[in-house]
């Protein structure tokens, strides 16, 4: 089923051109089902590109989905117009009394800073704490995943000698409905300077779903299935890594050429998208899981989450 979007939302025309169905409010109210309500905390500088990438993935669900976008109010946004933010984005004050079926916290280009040095860290941790009671399930992406693992579980990030950059294989190492339909080995884009050390992971609280010997754990989920941590970027477009590579070179950075990205690893050859199918499947599985877990009445979410947290504390 389609995503409900405002008529003049920038990503809508892109998605319609790709034959991805999006409808307006008037048509949506005639559908006699409750839409899933999703909240996307977009921390990426190029917000419109990230909006389109994520909407492309979640639109493949047969469920109608209402999407709200959330901005950080304690940070000055330099790469997205104030008009766009004011028109399409909410602040935490706008949503603090609301409940959502699902939430996505994106990555951000701040991973070389200590978490507490990020100028919006205090607001972000407040939002992450709120998500534990007011959201049924939360997906954390790349730096957002590292931030969530640090805040919720005390897992510190580990700096790499050079940027992990390219498309890397991973293996499903634990059977989980999130990876239903996955091949045993699959590929996903990586673009980061930091990761996590596997020996910091408490297996009683977190389960590693996918990993690789080179890049380590890449998909993790909390034992209560509330929080999902994806250290890569399955949402990336085919040419995103190439654009990042040329941008880094223009800035004078010594970024290595993206690995396993071009045909025969030759930048003069076409890019091979090895991750598109699993990206769609991952988000389809997540939304289906949220649909199965979330109550019909959104107002019931906080009480359910309190029961979940109490049960987790008791087990510990």
UniProtKB/TrEMBL annotation:
Species: Enterococcus diestrammenae
Protein name from the UniProt record: Homoserine O-acetyltransferase
PANTHER family for this protein: HOMOSERINE O-SUCCINYLTRANSFERASE
Its job: Transfers an acetyl group from acetyl-CoA to L-homoserine, forming acetyl-L-homoserine.
Catalytic center residues: 142 (acyl-thioester intermediate), 233 (proton acceptor), 235
Tagged with keyword Amino-acid biosynthesis: yes
Residues annotated as site: Important for acyl-CoA specificity: 111
InterPro entries: Class_I_gatase-like, HST_MetA, MetA_family
EC number: 2.3.1.31
């Amino acid at each position: 089923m389609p995503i409900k979007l405002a008529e003049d939302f920038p990503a809508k025309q892109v998605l319609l051109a790709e034959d991805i169905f999006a409808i307006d409010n008037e048509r949506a109210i005639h559908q006699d089902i409750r839409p899933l309500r999703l909240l996307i905390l977009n921390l990426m500088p190029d917000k419109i590109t990230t909006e389109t990438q994520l909407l492309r993935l979640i639109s493949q669900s047969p469920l109608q989905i209402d999407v709200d976008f959330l901005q950080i109010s304690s940070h000055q946004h330099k790469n997205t117009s104030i008009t766009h933010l004011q028109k399409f984005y909410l602040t935490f004050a706008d949503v603090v009394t609301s409940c959502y079926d699902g939430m996505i916290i994106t990555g951000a280009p701040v991973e070389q800073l200590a978490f507490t040095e990020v100028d919006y860290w205090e607001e972000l941790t407040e939002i992450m704490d709120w998500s534990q009671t007011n959201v049924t399930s939360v997906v954390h992406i790349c730096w957002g995943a590292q931030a969530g693992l640090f805040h919720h579980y005390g897992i510190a990030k580990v700096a790499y000698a050079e940027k992990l950059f390219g498309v890397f294989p991973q293996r499903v190492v634990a059977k989980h409905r999130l990876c239903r339909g996955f091949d045993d080995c699959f590929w996903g884009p990586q673009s980061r300077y930091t990761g996590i050390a596997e020996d910091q992971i408490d297996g009683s609280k977190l389960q590693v779903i996918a990993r690789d010997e080179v890049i380590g754990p890449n998909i993790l989920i909390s034992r209560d299935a509330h929080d999902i941590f994806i250290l890569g970027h399955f949402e990336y477009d085919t040419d995103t890594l190439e654009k990042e590579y040329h941008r880094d070179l223009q800035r004078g950075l010594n970024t290595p050429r993206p690995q396993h990205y071009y045909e025969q690893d030759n930048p003069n050859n076409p890019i091979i998208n090895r991750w598109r199918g699993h990206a769609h499947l991952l988000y389809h599985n997540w939304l289906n899981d949220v649909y199965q877990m979330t109550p019909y009445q959104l107002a019931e979410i906080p009480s359910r989450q309190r029961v979940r947290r109490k049960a987790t504390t008791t087990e510990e």
